[in-house]
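Review this today:
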Amino acid sequence: MTPLNATRRQARLLPFRQPWRDLVGALTCCNASLEDLAESFPGLLFALVSGYGDEKRRQRCAELVMDGAPLRQAARALGLPWWLRKLPAAAFTQPLAKLADDPAIARRMASLVPPALSDRDSAMWLHRVLAAEQACHERFALWIARHKSATLGVAFGRRFFLIAAWAWYSERPDTFAHRLIAKPWHPRMGLRAALNEAEIWRQHIELAARLGEDGRQPWFDDGSAHGYDFVALRTVEDFLAEAEAMRNCLDQYASELADGLSHVISIRKNGERVADLEIVPDEDGSGLPAIKQLRGPRNARAHPQVWRATRAWLAAQPCRPHPVIDEERARLAERRMRLRIWMPYLEAFGGLIEPQQGHAIVSGRARRGSTRLAYALAAPVGEAQPRPQRRRLRGRGPEVIIFPQAFLHSLASFMDDDEADGRIEELSEPLRDALRRLRRRA
């Protein structure tokens, strides 16, 4: 090799990051057509050395390139989307997960690939687009690609998992988490609106978790005074409906309910909501109820007649201190609610989430926006994709879903032994069988 050719070859290989640069060098050392891919289609060359697809497909793709076939034909043989050709070599830093090769999606994605990005930004853009497809679906990936300038920021990265899960649940009306969504995601939604709606959904999740599966047990029974009805809010549905009707912040009341001492009562006249009352144990140590706040619609001052009725209703209640809070039972109810909320998503994408993060999500100990996706993009070459796989055993036998072991261990870790049998029955049959096999082996 002449010094000129050696310099040119080195310049071609340099944009690839290690350890891929050495693998690219080994693959292209004896074939000029494969080496030319470093300039004409670096994504295809990266896919060949990083284990994309199966061995037969990679072999066929390499043969087509060496025979001088059109690059589109070679990419099709490998099942690699054509739009990846528009990205530089520096954008490819981790093995690619199996991507959808839908022609319509590929055409739209090709028009969204940002030009003239730095090496770091191009890698970040590709990373999040691929993560969006793996953690939600192709239309969400297109939406992420369209908002390229904002999605490159660190702040958005911290919210990525939340927005992906919110977008996925937006199209799952049969799930409990969908009922907590104020406004669902759609492809025409702007980035700022999506961030706001995802945050509102997160606050609703926290509210539901604080209330637990059984809801908040009222301090006093519902009753009436001076023509007004006093109805305790018990469930997350009660709080969300009250917040919408009264235009207040009761749907974001999770932190106020954390200690279990706050109780909210809806005050109604002839069936119409007129005010909200919050009572807490009096600070004098008696344990008797005290009015923390009493507000009308939009947090306006309550009418004097409402105050009069409220004091009369409280005076008519039995002299009963606040009941003792069973903290262990409250924690268990919160855990069950979080499991109910997140199970559909974890079951669909459990292999994309690191085990410790999956445990933190369900237990409620994850910091806001701190969840990182360990999606298939980060899987080492040669390992099975972490997404649950469907296989048919023994010819025409029934289809079996193979769940990743890390996900199963994570799920089992937040199920206490005394509640596991009951909770397992609520899961889908394939996941239930997989968990039982894991417990038998243990």
The longest strand covers residues 272-281. Residues 367-404 have pLDDT under 50 and may be disordered. The longest helix spans residues 327-349.
